[in-house]
Design goal:
about 45% helix, Conserved hypothetical protein from pyrococcus furiosus pfu- 392566-001, ParB domain, about 15% strand, 10 strands
């Protein structure tokens, strides 16, 4: 038996190396290729070829391990990306100084260096796929997307698959890591999540996001204020967390009066500071107000001083006086403001 095996093994011939003569049973073609004359020789050539392919595949698998868990970055047309329905940035967030700086950086680089995150949007609508419909929805990176959209630059984005709840949580974490939302924006975001049934309660929302429930409660209080009260401030971004309790208490005590005062404040130009708006909304008594001195200057020279005492009394001092016509205008304005007869 061993002699027969040895005889068969001797028939197996490996393909010749470059420069070597072809062994018996192998015919060398023009150009250097060898052609097997026997079945064992053909099998040996096949096995050698397969070994090389397997080795190459193993090397590629090793190289791909370095990309396990990585998300490829794509260059997208910002027109193909829409804001998420959970979007939490107020329009004023896209006109402030911080956004202008971000936009300048993106313009200089030719794209957003830090990719945004998006997820695919189902494209089927009434059985057809509208060509102009956005293909992606933002997970986070609304400000970077807006900057690229306004500049007409390509948007670097990571495409991922997320549920609504996963999207919401990723967006909230990203905002905290970058430019914090204002108190009102945060409240609006939380309110939408609860109203849409994303979380069954404030506590579950707070636990999922890893934030204190008192912060969620304050944020929601601000987001649930009447629109007229929010509009009394120059920007919703000016509303602070510490405004939540006094405004909520005042709304419960005198909702109609609060809304009426808010509408009157909204007519003022220029709009008072957030602190003064709050004081007027709360309709504080003179005893609760702070004394305040306002100095008016022209060309660096003080021309008038307006002082309000803790009791609310106002005094106006104009050291240089006024021309007769201007004095008459001032008196007329004061009569209108005070409703005076004379």
């Amino acid at each position: 038996m061993s002699k027969k095996l040895a005889a068969k093994a001797s028939l197996i011939q490996l393909p010749p190396l470059a420069g070597e003569a072809a062994p018996a049973g192998v015919e060398r073609r023009e150009g250097g290729d060898a052609r097997m004359k026997t079945a064992p020789g053909s099998m040996a050539a096949f096995m050698a070829t397969q070994s090389a392919a397997v080795k190459e595949a193993d090397e590629l698998r090793e190289r791909l391990k370095a990309f396990d868990g990585a998300r490829p970055v794509r260059m997208l047309d910002p027109q193909s990306v829409r804001p998420s329905r959970w979007a939490n940035r107020h329009e004023h967030s896209f006109v402030d100084e911080a956004f202008a700086e971000l936009k300048a950086d993106i313009a200089s680089a030719g794209t957003n260096v830090q990719p945004v995150s998006v997820r695919a949007v189902p494209q089927v609508l009434n059985g057809s796929t509208p060509e102009a419909a956005p293909q992606y929805e933002i997970v986070f990176g609304h400000r970077r997307h807006r900057a690229c959209l306004e500049l007409g630059l390509p948007l670097q984005a990571m495409v991922t698959e997320l549920t609504d709840q996963e999207l919401f949580e990723a967006m909230e974490r990203e905002n905290r890591a970058r430019k914090n939302l204002s108190a009102w924006e945060q409240g609006t975001m939380y309110r939408r999540a609860l109203d849409e049934g994303l979380y069954p309660s404030q506590r579950r929302l707070a636990e999922a996001l890893g934030v204190d429930i008192s912060l969620v409660s304050k944020s929601l209080s601000l987001a649930r204020l009447p629109d007229a009260v929010v509009a009394a401030f120059a920007s919703p971004l000016d509303i602070q967390f510490r405004f939540a309790k006094p405004l909520t208490d005042e709304f419960e005590r005198d909702p109609d009066g609060l809304v009426l005062r808010a509408r009157e404040i909204a007519k003022l130009k220029p709009r008072p500071s957030a602190k003064d708006v709050l004081a007027n909304l709360l309709n504080k008594s003179p005893a609760e107000q702070e004394s305040k001195v306002t100095q008016l200057a022209k060309g660096g020279v003080q021309v008038a001083t307006v002082e309000r005492s803790k009791k609310g009394a106002l005094s106006i001092q104009i050291p240089g006086g006024l021309e007769p016509q201007k004095e008459l205008k001032l008196l007329k304005l004061m009569r209108e403001l005070l409703g005076a007869d004379t």
